[in-house]
Amino acid sequence: MSDLPIADHALLSDRHSAALVTLDGSIAWLCFPRFDSESVFASILDDEAGHWSIRPTGRSTSTRAYVDGTMVLQTIFHTDEGTLELLDALELGDGADPHRLGEHAPHTLLRGVHCTSGRVAIEMVCRPRPEYGLVVPIFAEIDCGVVATGGSGRLTLSVPAPVIGVDEEIRMQFTLQAGQHRYFALQRTRLGEPLPGAYAQDQIAAGLATTTASWQEWSSIHQSYDGPWRELVHHSGRVLQALSYQPTGAIVAAATTSLPEEIGGERNWDYRYAWVRDASFTMKALWVAACPDEAHEFFDFMTAAAAHSNPDRHLQIMFGIGGEHDLSERLLPQLKGWRGSAPVRVGNGAWDQPQLDVYGELLDAAFRLRGQLGDIEPATRTFLIALADAAASQWQQPDNGIWEIRGAPRHFLYSKLMCWVALDRAIALADQLNATDRITEWSAMAARIRAAILEKGWNEEAAAFTQSFDSPELDASSLMMSVVGFLPASDPRMLATVDAIIDRLTDSRGLVYRYQTDTGVDGLHGNEGTFLLCTFWLAQVLADAGRCGEAREVFERAVGHVNNVGLLAEEVDSETGEQLGNFPQAFSHVGLINAAWAIQQAESGYAANERTPPENEH
Known about the structure:
The protein is α+β, with helices and mostly antiparallel strands. Helices cover 30% and strands 20% of the residues. The protein is globular, with a radius of gyration of 24 Å.
């Protein structure tokens, strides 16, 4: 299964952990009890690393969709003799919507099968391999289930009938007639916790119903966007909600590790952590796609996670979802990788890189969400003021930039731009921050940064704003200059930059690369696909410039790559059109939301600085 297309997978989430399900009903990825925990199933990375399949025994075809307004997956199998419905969900708990779940997630994967016509013979194979495939657990049968012991926890599999084989995997076969149901559950408990009994059939059925209702309640209360591509925007909002870690408010960049940016290449990273940049962008997208009640949670998380006593230390760019600082990277040599794309990594070596853009991204998110933040807590005020001061004092330093290059630090234009944003937004927030006495100082520094960007960021040879000061190389992040309000999209220099990117930084499909890897800027071998976020940025800037027809064309090219359940990875292979990179990717869904909204606003006649969020709780 490690050779299946990345787009063949669908996401399940309980806002604590995530699972991926293949089109043929196999759980190919599951981490318990957190997004960044060791895997229980990881066949997406290696066929021997565990899976859990429920499917018809003979020949079948399948279709699938999420139940309306939810992250509950429905897969329909059609056989020669009948039709089978498979429902999959990570349980949210009794009466809890995905916002109110708290720290006590059941850590249970629920699965139910229902024969809707004829008769269907079914096979179930559960092959857990905890700790990224290292552990072959010991199985013991209990009443209505099997317990797997091995590694840091125990798994209780609830089954509707006696199993026929328990060796290195759990197997059973049964046949359903039209109207019959059967249910399964996999529950994880830590060593030392009381071992739970198996779930009863009606308990699993109730859990599926409650989880479905909880997601639908959240969607009906929090989602009000009513513009173009409404269903895609609402679904992307649910995906972003599904990628948030409820106990702390952290938001993971993606649900997986080491799905490659190039097949067989080395650009394989662990994205199951909370990047300051990604989380800030996500909060802004939720402003459109869902009422962002999590604003306080996110800023409380960042304030606590980033707290340290050294004023000269740069803000860490990413944290563990529980606030952990040390995310040291290591290799998992036992895993072959998706389609042989080794190495497989856990942890992320970029955790201690200096990246100056994060100051602006946090302050921009605070500005966008100022209504939700209300009276800002003293600790958060201190934190946000410190971010502005750090931007003012550090903006002239080289850094590793938005794309986390592993080559030599440079004076990246985007990093300087976001330092300007940090000061611009701090000035706008000065009253709420009780910092009006800092406005003069911040304004003077913002003017210095602006002058430097306009002088050194523009390159006459490229006829565009470029990747770094005094460089002719293009970078899609320069599109953000108009998005953040540094220059209007209609400015001749921005229009020239847009045209340069369209002409020299897109593939034959019209999708946008981040930058050209052959310059060696990132210190890595090989290439990568086009970047979906950057393609959505292009659509957004075209809309802001009044080129709405072109914006729609670019947007449609990008969303043409969503899979059959509306999910996007990070990149697209320029040759094959396949999705590449970790999956699903928060950045891609953020870009989709923001571009759709920008096009809707531009077509409604609103300038970028006049835009207001959808009406209701926002």
